[in-house]
Amino acid sequence: MKRCLLPQVMSVISTMIFQNYQLQTPIQARATKRISIQVILISSSTFGNLKTSHVTIAKAVRKRF
């Protein structure tokens, strides 16, 4: 079940990051991708619910930037 959710969470977080932070360089993009994956692993293992994960991801992303 959680494996099926992962692509959805991934698209949510990548959309959110690129809308909010307008990344310009490949180095920044790589760093962001690494952060996203860490956050996704944390949130998907803790919550099965996409809505809850989205909130958690948003909080974690805000802390990192």
Automatic annotation (TrEMBL):
It comes from the Eukaryota. This is Uncharacterized protein. It comes from Trichinella papuae.
